[in-house]
Amino acid sequence: MQSLVKICSTLNKYFATVLLLTMVGFVSGNTFLRYFFSSGIIITEELVRYLFMWATYMGVVSVWYQRQHIRVTTISDRLTPRGKIKMYMVFNVVSFFVLLVLFYGCVQYYEDTTTVGQVTGIPYRIMVLAMLVGTLLCAVISIGQLKQDFDMLKLDDTTLERLDKEANAVEAIPDEEDAKDSKAEEKKE
User: Fold this and answer.
1) pLDDT beneath 50, residues of the chain
2) CA 174 → CA 28, 63, 162, 167, distances in Å?
3) DSSP 67
4) Cα 187 from Cα 153, distance rounded (Å)
5) What predicted TM-score, i.e. pTM, was given to this entire model?
6) Neighbour tally for 92: CB within 10 Å
7) Neighbouring C-alpha atoms within 13 Å toward the C-beta of 114
8) What is the pLDDT of residues 128-156, one digit of tens each?
């Protein structure tokens, strides 16, 4: 099951990357045409709008899965490992209900919208579908993370301390650019 989740996560990253690169290509090509030929391809503006919605929500799903969303760690840094897990569990429960409300609103909007793109004729439902898929996937991920947190609470305190230290050590590892910069500064001194 875990390998299936990793495969889906990887596919999602590639999908979001392809969408983003397609958007960049459309915008760059259109800019080039407008600058040099004083005319662009009108359809690309509308397509970029659709691609942007899909890329955004697929990016949200990827970040949600990795638990890398923006968060303030002022409180969690002062908690014990068991306290952090409990805090994450509360976060996942609250997030789950917020996602359900958002999903319900998206379903209502999806059913009510009849608007189509002026140039392409593509229904706006395609954009709303991105929100539906994104919120549904995030809700499912929240349930999975809640189950992981329940399993983590079953561990003893020493194991939780060790796992917390390992996680903090991984976060503290500098990337290659930081390492090169610090070595360059050491050589100057």
Assistant:
1) none
2) 34, 20, 21, 14
3) T
4) 47
5) 0.78
6) 21
7) 1
8) 999 999 999 999 889 988 998 888 888 88
